[in-house]
Amino acid sequence: MNKHGSIHFHDTTITYEVVRSARRHKTIQTQVSLDNVRVLAPAAASDLELEQLVRDQAPWILERRKILSQRRAPRRFVTGETMPYLGRDFELIVHTNRFLRPWIRFDEDCFLFDAPPGMDDYKRRELIRKAFVDWYWRQAEDYLPDIVDEWLPFVAGHASPRVLIRNQRRRWASCARDRTLRFSWRAMMLEPDLIDYLVVHELAHLTEMNHSNRFWDLVSYHLPDVKERRRSLRKAEFLLPL
Fold it and tell me: Would you call 168 helix, strand, or coil by DSSP?
């Protein structure tokens, strides 16, 4: 049975739910939504330990809730809305055209989409949403390997790793022991400085396959403002439309 607790931080009360699992051995994960905080913990974790964790994370929890409260409404994918590309918002213009292929086109100032006639709102939204995913994916396949090659000599100095684009929802990027770097297509919505951070982070793993002090020293050597970039990335993940 799940347990509940609460802590006081300044003038705010944070209530939380503890979910223990025998399958968890060491890691403790905190999930935050606007109306709930869930702490996923090993079965052996004590109530006192988890309460202290929530106290320590209180500033982060409140900041994350603030970001969630600013989250934009889901896109309807209609003319006048905007979609991000490399950190900038561009207007979407939707036309109805029975003769053109329904795909996203980008003309440097806006996104254009030619929707088939006679579609209901739901089908049109889903068609445009999928077209955006495909478009971002293609951009990522062209853009990200070049950024990896730019940073590689400075960060890792190894032979070029394999770069794959994936639909990773829980992480922006990852580095496997076989030297394969995987990036989410969603990275193409981020500003270039944040993409650079993702690339440097994963390239550093080619030398340090961990998050030790040596790993962070390597990242911060190349990106002295790494902490600010990490904060910006955490904020971005809640504000992006896809």
Answer: coil
Residue 181 near residue 202, CB atoms below 8 Å: yes
pTM above 0.85, yes or no: no
Name the region of 10 (left: φ>0; alpha: ψ -120 to 50; beta: rest).
left
* Nearest C-alpha neighbor of 198 from the set 160, 176, 229: 229
pLDDT in tens, the chain (242 residues): 688 999 999 899 999 999 998 888 778 899 988 889 999 999 989 999 999 999 999 998 998 888 777 766 788 999 999 999 999 999 999 988 877 778 899 988 999 999 888 888 899 999 999 999 999 999 999 999 999 999 999 998 878 899 999 998 778 999 999 999 999 999 999 999 999 999 999 999 999 999 999 999 999 999 999 999 998 998 888 788 88
CA distance 219 to 225: 10
- Give CA torsion, residues 189, 195, 199, 202, to 10 deg: -70
Q: How far apart are CA 205 and CA 202, in angstroms?
A: 5
Measured CA to CA, the distance from residue 70 to residue 80 in angstroms comes to: 20
CA distance 24 to 38: 15
CA distance 167 to 114: 25
- For residues 83 and 100, give the distance between their C-alpha atoms in angstroms, rounded to a whole number: 22
